[in-house]
Write a structure and sequence with these properties.
Elements: H1 2-19, E1 22-25, H2 32-41, E2 47-54, E3 59-65, E4 70-73, E5 79-83, H3 96-105, E6 111-116, E7 120-125, E8 130-134, E9 139-143
Antiparallel strand pairs: 1-2, 2-3, 3-4, 4-5, 5-6, 6-7, 7-8, 8-9
């Protein structure tokens, strides 16, 4: 019983430590690919803060812009999510198969939010419609509300 309790306390303390691993960093401390994306597609935006969050197995970076936009990158500088509050995202940041689908089925609709994980891609159009694609870029879910 003592071993189980000790193990649980150890796990809880690791989780608590992982939550405290956020720190504000400079743009120059981002991985190079993330710096390039920001310099190329958000050069006119004012960066409010850059946050690095370290967990046990990975590091994530979040850039918050003064206009409310939030862009997140993984430890290698690859895009995890892009969230623009007002204007559409640059289409060059979205996989071309998704852009082609949106242009075909939702003409004149920009993409406001984009996220990618191990299983799928999710986008939110300027109209608020949410679309989910699998890794083969096939539409698997639509929420038009």
């Amino acid at each position: 019983m003592k071993k189980i309790l000790s193990l649980l306390l150890g796990i809880l303390s690791l989780c608590a430590c992982a939550n405290d691993n956020k720190q504000i960093i400079q743009m120059s401390q981002l991985p190079a690919p993330a710096q390039t994306i920001v310099a190329t597609y958000a050069a006119e935006e004012t960066v409010a803060v850059v946050v690095m969050e370290k967990d046990l197995f990975e590091t994530e970076y979040e850039i918050r812009f003064a206009n409310g936009n939030e862009w997140k990158f993984d430890q290698n500088g690859a895009v995890e999510s892009l969230d623009n509050s007002v204007q559409a995202l640059p289409m060059e940041l979205i996989p071309s198969a998704i852009v082609a689908y949106v242009n075909r089925c939702f003409p004149n609709q920009g993409i406001r939010e984009y996220s990618v994980d191990r299983r799928d891609y999710e986008i939110t159009l300027m109209s608020g419609a949410e679309l989910t694609f699998n890794k083969s870029f096939e539409l698997i879910k639509t929420d038009l509300d």
